[in-house]
Each structure stands twice: as C-alpha cells, then as structure tokens.
Design brief:
Blueprint: H1 2-32, E1 36-44, E2 47-50, H2 52-60, E3 67-69, E4 86-92, E5 98-104, E6 108-110, H3 133-139, E7 152-160, E8 163-166, H4 168-174, E9 180-183, H5 186-189, E10 200-207, E11 210-217, E12 221-224
Antiparallel strand pairs: 1-2, 1-4, 3-6, 4-5, 7-8, 7-10, 9-12, 10-11
C-alpha cells in the first residue's frame, strides 16, 4: 500500500515537473522569438511622432549595449511636452502574427527581441586587427591623456534607414572642446545621403563613463553633453 502511494506520488511529481518544464520552454521560446517592426510611434494619446525609420535604424545597429533607450533624445524629440509618453511598436513574427509592444518613457527595449532590419553594415569602426592600443584608442575616440569623464563620441551616422553616411569624425572634431552644439543639416554633415527624405543624426557617445544615444532630426540642433 505504501509502495502504491509512493508510486502515485512519484508519477504526480514527474507530471508536475514536466508541465513546469514545458511552460518554461514555451515562455523562453516566446521571449526569444524575433519580431519585425512594421510601424512605431512615440508620444501620448494623439500627440505622437512616427519613429519607424529611426527605431529600425537603432535596432539594426544593436542599440547601445544591446538596448534602445525610450526617451526624447533617442526618439528624436518631444511630441508631447510634459506628458508621460509611450513608445508603441507594431511588429510581425515569421508566422505572420501581429502584436503591439508598449514601452514607457524612461524604459528600454531589448534589441535582440526584434529582427535586425536588412541593410548594409554601415558601422565601419576599426576592429583590433593591428594590436596597436594607441591606434585603437584613437579610433574609439579616447586618449590616454583625456579625462575618462570627458565627452567621447563613439560613433555617429546621418541619414534614414539604409541610406546613411558615417559622420563620426565630424563630431569627434567638434567634441575636442568638451561639448558640441551644431545645427543638423546636409551642409554641416558634408553630404546628403538621402535626397528628399527627412533624415536623422544619431550619435552614440560616452559622458562621465556612461554610454548614451541621442537622435536629432534634420533642421534641429544637437547639444552635447
């Protein structure tokens, strides 16, 4: 009788464990599933800005440390001053299922959650091929004699979606005085990578040891830090 009860309990435990494992596997699969961005907007109620192209660009480059910050800087402006804004991402998976993801202002979204949009790899930051630490530090925008808390431009690009130009050196030159203030335009960037399109300047930088990203629409001013 005791053996029978033990056997029943053992079977029950095994079945329960199997259910838990299956549930965890299903949850992990859902979290790892890749979604493609169809449309995205940022704002509050009806005061919203279309940030589809901007978000696709940020995601395709992996964001900053694998995440994209949801704030007025990274989203290219403040469409609803004084309001608690939301980033809405409308996406589709490989099965054709569509879903809306909501990310509050001040939060982050994981770049790995969304499929990187196809396009050329614009990020031509030099890799450590020559094993020259001094040269690598210059490419990373750092200098052994520079204060680690100073403004450092890691990389920057100007354009829209897959029509972009790398303007890292342009901003690094302007950052030598410790700050940047410039009007975002084709003339200032030295090139128009997408004639007739509304472009963005996206800058990933480090200040006081913290990496951040900022996006500024063409026609507006960039101020760093």
């Amino acid at each position: 009788m005791n053996q029978t009860n033990f056997g029943v309990r053992a079977i029950t435990v095994l079945l329960s464990a199997a259910v838990v494992v299956a549930a965890l596997a299903l949850r992990a699969s859902a979290q790892q599933e890749s979604w493609q961005v169809i449309r995205a907007d940022y704002g509050w109620r009806h005061e919203r800005a279309d940030v589809t192209a901007l978000l696709r660009d940020l995601l395709s480059r992996g964001g900053v440390n694998g995440r994209v910050a949801v704030n007025n800087q990274s989203m290219g402006g403040d469409p609803a001053v004084g309001r608690d804004k939301m980033l809405r991402v409308f996406a589709r998976n490989f099965r054709g299922e569509q879903r809306e993801f909501d990310f509050p202002e001040g939060g982050f979204l994981e770049a790995a959650m969304f499929q990187n949009q196809p396009g050329r790899d614009w990020d031509d930051r030099p890799r450590d091929n020559d094993r020259d630490p001094d040269r690598d530090d210059r490419f990373r925008g750092t200098d052994h004699d520079r204060d680690r808390d100073a403004l450092q431009i890691l990389y920057a690009f100007y354009g829209v979606q897959h029509r972009t130009v790398n303007v890292t050196d342009v901003l690094r030159i302007r950052a030598r005085e410790g700050s940047i203030f410039l009007h975002v335009s084709n003339d200032m960037m030295g090139f128009d990578p997408a004639v007739g399109a509304d472009k963005f300047l996206i800058v990933v930088y480090r200040f006081e040891g913290k990496e951040q990203a900022v996006a500024v629409a063409e026609g507006y001013n960039l101020t760093l830090p």
